[in-house]
Amino acid sequence: MNTPENKAGMDGGPVRRQEWRVPARMDGLTGLLAKVEAFLEAAGWSLAASHPVLLAIEELATNTIKYGYPAAAGTLEVVLAVTAATADLTLRDDGMPFDPVTAPPPDLDQPVEDRPIGGLGLHLVRRQSASFVYRRLATGHNEVHLIFHSLAATLKSGFQELH
Fold first, then answer.
1. Full-model pTM
2. What is the DSSP string of the chain?
3. Fold of the domain built from segment(s) 16-162
4. Amino acid 103: pLDDT
Protein backbone atom coordinates (compact mmCIF):
# COMPACT_ATOMS: atom_id res chain seq x y z
CA MET A 1 0.00 0.00 0.00
CA ASN A 2 2.98 2.29 -0.67
CA THR A 3 1.94 5.66 -2.01
CA PRO A 4 5.12 7.70 -2.50
CA GLU A 5 4.62 11.38 -3.08
CA ASN A 6 6.66 13.54 -5.42
CA LYS A 7 6.40 16.59 -3.20
CA ALA A 8 9.29 18.03 -1.28
CA GLY A 9 9.12 18.01 2.49
CA MET A 10 9.55 21.08 4.68
CA ASP A 11 13.29 20.39 4.69
CA GLY A 12 13.34 20.34 0.87
CA GLY A 13 13.93 16.58 0.67
CA PRO A 14 11.61 14.05 -0.94
CA VAL A 15 8.67 12.68 1.04
CA ARG A 16 8.22 8.93 1.30
CA ARG A 17 4.77 7.84 2.48
CA GLN A 18 3.36 4.49 3.55
CA GLU A 19 0.05 3.34 5.03
CA TRP A 20 -0.71 0.14 6.90
CA ARG A 21 -4.07 -1.23 8.08
CA VAL A 22 -3.95 -4.13 10.50
CA PRO A 23 -6.35 -5.90 12.83
CA ALA A 24 -6.14 -4.46 16.35
CA ARG A 25 -4.60 -7.59 17.85
CA MET A 26 -1.32 -8.09 19.70
CA ASP A 27 -0.24 -10.89 17.35
CA GLY A 28 -0.13 -8.43 14.45
CA LEU A 29 1.86 -5.73 16.19
CA THR A 30 5.30 -7.33 15.79
CA GLY A 31 4.85 -7.64 12.03
CA LEU A 32 3.65 -4.05 11.77
CA LEU A 33 6.67 -2.77 13.69
CA ALA A 34 9.03 -4.76 11.45
CA LYS A 35 7.43 -3.23 8.34
CA VAL A 36 7.67 0.29 9.77
CA GLU A 37 11.31 -0.27 10.75
CA ALA A 38 12.14 -1.49 7.22
CA PHE A 39 10.36 1.52 5.72
CA LEU A 40 12.29 3.95 7.94
CA GLU A 41 15.57 2.20 7.11
CA ALA A 42 14.81 2.45 3.38
CA ALA A 43 14.13 6.16 3.91
CA GLY A 44 17.63 6.57 5.39
CA TRP A 45 16.72 6.66 9.07
CA SER A 46 19.11 4.93 11.46
CA LEU A 47 17.80 2.55 14.09
CA ALA A 48 18.58 5.16 16.76
CA ALA A 49 16.56 7.80 14.90
CA SER A 50 13.74 5.31 14.22
CA HIS A 51 13.41 4.16 17.83
CA PRO A 52 11.10 6.99 19.06
CA VAL A 53 8.75 6.41 16.09
CA LEU A 54 8.66 2.66 16.73
CA LEU A 55 8.15 3.19 20.47
CA ALA A 56 5.21 5.52 19.78
CA ILE A 57 3.53 2.99 17.49
CA GLU A 58 4.13 0.13 19.93
CA GLU A 59 2.89 2.10 22.96
CA LEU A 60 -0.18 3.66 21.34
CA ALA A 61 -1.18 0.51 19.46
CA THR A 62 -0.77 -1.65 22.59
CA ASN A 63 -2.96 0.72 24.60
CA THR A 64 -5.57 0.72 21.84
CA ILE A 65 -5.57 -3.07 21.56
CA LYS A 66 -5.76 -3.62 25.34
CA TYR A 67 -8.27 -0.91 26.27
CA GLY A 68 -9.98 0.36 23.13
CA TYR A 69 -11.83 -2.82 22.22
CA PRO A 70 -13.53 -4.41 25.24
CA ALA A 71 -15.91 -6.58 23.17
CA ALA A 72 -14.29 -7.22 19.78
CA ALA A 73 -11.13 -6.38 17.86
CA GLY A 74 -11.12 -3.48 15.45
CA THR A 75 -8.69 -1.97 12.98
CA LEU A 76 -5.54 0.10 13.39
CA GLU A 77 -4.38 2.42 10.65
CA VAL A 78 -0.84 3.78 10.61
CA VAL A 79 0.22 6.49 8.16
CA LEU A 80 3.86 7.53 8.05
CA ALA A 81 5.41 10.23 5.87
CA VAL A 82 9.14 10.80 6.19
CA THR A 83 11.89 12.99 4.83
CA ALA A 84 15.54 12.82 5.80
CA ALA A 85 14.76 15.12 8.74
CA THR A 86 11.16 14.50 9.83
CA ALA A 87 8.68 11.68 10.44
CA ASP A 88 5.00 12.58 10.38
CA LEU A 89 3.05 9.77 12.06
CA THR A 90 -0.71 9.35 12.26
CA LEU A 91 -2.45 6.49 14.06
CA ARG A 92 -6.19 5.93 13.74
CA ASP A 93 -8.45 3.38 15.38
CA ASP A 94 -12.15 2.74 15.70
CA GLY A 95 -11.97 1.88 19.40
CA MET A 96 -13.41 3.61 22.43
CA PRO A 97 -12.56 7.32 22.76
CA PHE A 98 -9.28 7.94 24.56
CA ASP A 99 -7.13 11.07 24.47
CA PRO A 100 -3.57 10.00 25.35
CA VAL A 101 -2.43 13.62 25.36
CA THR A 102 -4.46 14.30 28.52
CA ALA A 103 -3.34 11.16 30.38
CA PRO A 104 -1.63 12.21 33.61
CA PRO A 105 2.16 11.94 33.66
CA PRO A 106 3.71 9.33 35.93
CA ASP A 107 5.09 10.45 39.28
CA LEU A 108 8.79 10.04 38.55
CA ASP A 109 9.73 11.19 42.05
CA GLN A 110 8.35 8.00 43.60
CA PRO A 111 10.54 4.90 43.79
CA VAL A 112 9.79 2.52 40.92
CA GLU A 113 8.41 -0.14 43.23
CA ASP A 114 5.88 2.34 44.69
CA ARG A 115 4.56 3.67 41.36
CA PRO A 116 1.31 2.39 39.88
CA ILE A 117 1.72 0.42 36.66
CA GLY A 118 1.14 2.40 33.48
CA GLY A 119 1.79 5.83 32.08
CA LEU A 120 5.52 5.61 31.54
CA GLY A 121 5.21 4.67 27.85
CA LEU A 122 3.00 7.66 27.07
CA HIS A 123 5.41 9.85 29.02
CA LEU A 124 8.30 8.66 26.83
CA VAL A 125 6.27 9.24 23.66
CA ARG A 126 5.49 12.80 24.80
CA ARG A 127 9.15 13.48 25.59
CA GLN A 128 10.49 12.09 22.32
CA SER A 129 8.02 13.68 19.91
CA ALA A 130 8.15 17.26 18.68
CA SER A 131 4.35 17.34 18.46
CA PHE A 132 1.66 15.07 19.98
CA VAL A 133 -1.98 15.84 19.12
CA TYR A 134 -5.22 13.86 19.56
CA ARG A 135 -8.64 14.36 18.05
CA ARG A 136 -11.83 12.36 17.90
CA LEU A 137 -13.04 12.32 14.29
CA ALA A 138 -16.66 12.73 13.23
CA THR A 139 -16.42 9.15 11.91
CA GLY A 140 -16.01 7.93 15.50
CA HIS A 141 -12.29 7.22 15.08
CA ASN A 142 -9.49 8.22 17.41
CA GLU A 143 -6.61 9.96 15.63
CA VAL A 144 -3.20 10.67 17.11
CA HIS A 145 -0.78 12.77 15.12
CA LEU A 146 2.91 12.97 16.05
CA ILE A 147 5.98 14.63 14.57
CA PHE A 148 9.50 13.32 15.13
CA HIS A 149 12.83 14.74 14.03
CA SER A 150 15.63 12.45 12.94
CA LEU A 151 18.73 12.34 15.09
CA ALA A 152 20.74 14.03 12.32
CA ALA A 153 18.19 16.86 12.06
CA THR A 154 18.15 17.28 15.83
CA LEU A 155 21.95 17.40 16.01
CA LYS A 156 22.12 19.86 13.10
CA SER A 157 19.51 22.10 14.73
CA GLY A 158 21.39 22.01 18.05
CA PHE A 159 24.66 22.79 16.30
CA GLN A 160 23.12 25.77 14.52
CA GLU A 161 21.75 27.11 17.81
CA LEU A 162 25.28 27.08 19.23
CA HIS A 163 26.58 29.35 16.47
1. 0.81
2. -B----SB-TTSSBPEEEEEEEES-HHHHHHHHHHHHHHHHHTT--HHHHHHHHHHHHHHHHHHHHHS-SSS--EEEEEEEE-SSEEEEEEEE-SS---GGGSPPP-TTS-GGGSPSSSHHHHHHHHH-SEEEEEE-TTS-EEEEEEEE-HHHHHHHHHHHH-
3. Heat Shock Protein 90 (3.30.565)
4. 72
